[in-house]
Design brief:
The structure is a single chain. This protein has two domains: 86 residues, Rossmann fold (3-Layer(aba) Sandwich), CATH 3.40.50; 96 residues, UDP N-Acetylglucosamine Acyltransferase, domain 1, CATH 2.160.10.10. The protein is built from three helices and 22 strands. It has a six-stranded parallel sheet, covered by helices on one side. It has a five-stranded mixed sheet with strand order 3-4-2-1-5. The protein has a five-stranded parallel sheet with strand order 8-11-14-17-20, with no helix packed on it. It starts with a strand and ends with a strand. Helices cover 16% and strands 31% of the residues. Strand 3 and strand 4 form a beta hairpin.
């Protein structure tokens, strides 16, 4: 089984660990977090380094995954994604076995599709995205790079979610609309 390191050791990391364990494609080799947390554990996995160690770790491990969440801004996730790419890591797509992703959908590198999410035919999801638990991405929808589609959110057919958007829990879009920036939980995008 290939080994992978997770970059970020907070709450979202715990959810990523659960999905990665369930998917069964990777063995988690350790977590990258703040230097002062080295040696601590997250769900039994040790913090083995900080951002400063990525170049060295890339010589030992082929795969990394950004396990930092995103609410107000995608800035940290984007910075870490770019650091990992520059270090030479591959950032795989991670899909929960409890999610459904159509064979006609496209999902790009570094994106996670979490438990019970649905990604329907001809949907396109960019790089470094979080499609959180129970989110629905309908046919022909586009989620651009570095977006977080939160728990229970609905992106209806033909909708475009622009890069770096946070799309809140239970927010719903009308068909063929555009969403960008910060979409509040429970809102309707028209």
């Amino acid at each position: 089984m290939e080994k992978i390191i997770l970059i970020g050791g907070g709450g979202h990391c715990k959810s990523c660990i659960d999905v990665i364990e369930q998917e069964g494609r990777f063995e988690i080799a350790g977590i990258i977090d703040q230097a002062e947390l080295i040696g601590k554990k997250v769900l039994g996995y040790e913090v083995i380094g900080s951002d400063a160690d990525l170049d060295t770790l890339a010589q030992k491990y082929r795969f990394a995954f950004i396990a930092v969440g995103q609410i107000r801004s995608s800035e940290v996730r984007v910075r870490l994604f770019e650091l990992a790419k520059r270090a030479g890591f591959e950032l795989p797509v991670v899909i929960s076995p409890r999610a459904y992703v159509s064979k006609h959908a496209k999902v790009e590198e570094g994106t996670i599709i979490m438990h019970d999410a649905l990604v329907n035919a001809d949907a396109k999801i960019g790089r470094n995205c979080i499609i959180n638990s129970k989110a629905l991405i309908e046919h022909d929808a586009v989620v651009e790079d570095n977006c977080h589609i939160s728990t229970g959110a609905i992106i209806n057919g033909g909708t475009v979610v622009k890069s770096n958007t946070f799309y809140g829990s239970s927010a719903t879009s009308k068909e063929n609309t555009e969403a960008s920036g910060f979409v509040k939980a429970g809102s309707v995008v028209k």
